[in-house]
Design goal:
By secondary structure, the protein is mainly beta. The chain has three helices and 16 strands. It has helices at residues 120-126, 144-154, 177-185; strands at 2-7, 10-14, 20-23, 38-39, 42-44, 58-59, 63-65, 69-73, 76-84, 95-103, 106-110, 131-135, 158-162, 189-192, 197-199, 210-213. The protein has an eight-stranded mixed sheet, covered by helices on one side. A six-stranded mixed sheet has the order 7-5-3-2-1-15, with no helix packed on it. Strand 1 and strand 2 form a beta hairpin. The longest helix is centred in the C-terminal third of the chain and has 11 residues, at 144-154.
């Protein structure tokens, strides 16, 4: 499985069969350049805000998933789990869909713009997680302390922070420093800007708990 962080909450996943999935494609309004071409077979949309729902930028006539429940296609099993974009039941910013993406024997949890703590029932529904993509930037999502609680609840082996301030975009958001400090305290190994692309298989998956701070593929032009 090949994994790239394009930017913000947008990831590119390719399985061994060569089929691809993209999460939460964004518009240029957030400050990151939009790739001139994103081609995928499946697109997941966590919610209908323009920094997460730009499905039209993805070519290849993809299957676009916006709803709860489970769909299987092209070596991917995708399960949407409804949550909220805020701490008031969605009254402020609306709903949010978390997705469990299963492929190549691994389970990825993409939190979208999760805006509150998980309930006990949601935690059970999510189940085992190998790779967690979690927002940490506050303002529009949970903050570093909230993300730490989500990590503790789901106990993933690999954590990839997203939706935070970088030197390219997100000036109104928190940077990664507080979250990384929490993770170090919780005995996660922190790998800073390790790569733009990661490759994983179930057989050689990391044994030690790890936070992976990736370089956005869509950086400054």
């Amino acid at each position: 499985m090949i994994l790239q962080w394009l930017a913000h909450a947008c990831f590119f996943i390719q399985n061994e069969q060569g089929y691809t999935l993209v999460t939460d494609p964004y518009t240029e309004s957030i400050g990151y350049p939009v790739p001139k071409e994103i081609k995928a077979d499946i697109v997941t949309i966590s919610h209908e805000h323009t920094d997460h729902n730009n499905a039209g930028v993805v070519t290849g006539n993809p299957l676009v998933i916006r709803t709860a429940g489970t769909q299987e296609a092209l070596g991917f099993r995708v399960t949407g789990i409804p949550t909220d974009h805020d701490e008031k039941g969605g009254q402020v910013r609306g709903s949010n869909m978390m997705y469990i993406i299963e492929t190549e024997g691994l389970r990825i949890c993409h939190c979208g713009d999760l805006g509150r703590m998980l309930t006990e029932e949601e935690t059970k529904q999510i189940g085992h997680v190998d790779i967690l993509m979690v927002p940490i930037g506050s303002v529009y999502t949970i903050d570093a302390a909230g993300a730490r609680q989500v990590v503790a609840a789901l106990n993933p082996k690999v954590v990839i922070p997203m939706h935070y301030r970088t030197d390219i975009a997100g000036d109104e958001l928190d940077g990664p420093e507080a979250f990384l400090e929490y993770m170090t305290q919780d005995e996660y190994a922190v790998s800073m800007h390790h790569a733009k692309t990661q490759e994983y298989t179930a057989a050689d998956f990391p044994k030690r708990y790890k936070v992976l701070v990736m370089e956005p593929t869509c950086g400054k032009e």
